[in-house]
């Protein structure tokens, strides 16, 4: 869905679940001086929604929907729509209109918390509390509340700040702050992921790697913003990196020009992805369970599927087949999944997939609170080591909530009988 401002207002709009917002200028989200005189204005928002991909309606009427079944499309502006789509959307404009109404002092307090520099400490605590709340919701298998629902016709500015604007603040923190695990920011991690995905030991241009990273990792800001980060990862002079993760071939700048990014981008620079140190430090064991983004797998071929468990296949730069098993979340608002296994051999991947497919999906459906990397690591390890055990053994060993055993065993038995019948 694309959202546009009908009137000349400064209300910021941010992408939300089931809705795609389009702006050509990223700076239009939050101007430097935000006016606090919007309480007397009635802001109307025009929205458009593809009828054949009505995400809200699917979530409402289907009990189970996986992120892999939802097409991911990045809409930059109204120019992304065809003339036929524009006529269809605006012919039923009343259905897609959402009114932003002023609700009183609560709206004033919400905007003051979000934009007033004097409340920066309270704002930090507010963002931290919301992030912790959402983390607990994900661990417990609960849905994250969103502002826009299928039948939403009007919202208050307070609801907009607490349910929609907060998404921007959280995403900004995730994008700007380095992780304690590996020291990477989100964009840097996407670059390293792309290098592993390419599995290429030859030289490549900075521009080519930036473009491929933006395409294969759903990086929505464009490849030109990745080029300075790639250059920094390859710099090896004093004052740049302790260890350069990419090998520079050519002139990647010097210490006196470290702040002048324009000089770097004008160079015809090459870099090699064959840094042996990188592959040793960030090596991933085949059976290690890691959390991944769904957008990275939308172009992969599906070899086999059993509900939320999917076996993918893709080719790297050497035309070598790679196989990966993913366990998708149900109704995932974060569009994340769990990578359970990676291999270059189809037979090994299929054997491991067969061991998991009849037990793991239904087990995780009943126990969503165990849907984490550490819990899945132990469960998959137990299933792989004991392929002949039934659901009762798996639940008894891995789940403390033994009272659900009969229900899961009955469902598992019905599923096996149905498969044997066919």
For this entry, give a set of tags.
422 residues; alpha+beta; Topoisomerase II, domain 5; 4-stranded mixed sheet; disordered N terminus; ATP binding; DNA binding; isomerase
Provide a short characterization of the protein structure.
With 422 residues, the protein is an alpha+beta fold.
Q: How many distinct helices? A: 15
Residues in β-strands, percent: 5-15%
Taking strands numbered 1, 2, ... along the chain, how are they ordered across the largest sheet? Answer: 8-12-11-10-9
Q: First CA to last CA: what distance? A: 41 Å
Order of helices and strands: EEHHEHHEHHEHHEHEHEEEEEHHHHH
- What overall geometry do the principal axes of the alpha carbons give? globular
Rg over CA atoms, rounded to whole Å, is 24 Å
Uncertain stretches of 5 or more adjacent residues: 1-63
Describe the sheet with the most strands.
5 strands, antiparallel
The overall number of domains is 3
What would you call the structural class? alpha+beta
Mean pLDDT comes to 71
- Record field, number of beta strands: 12
Helix content: 25-40%
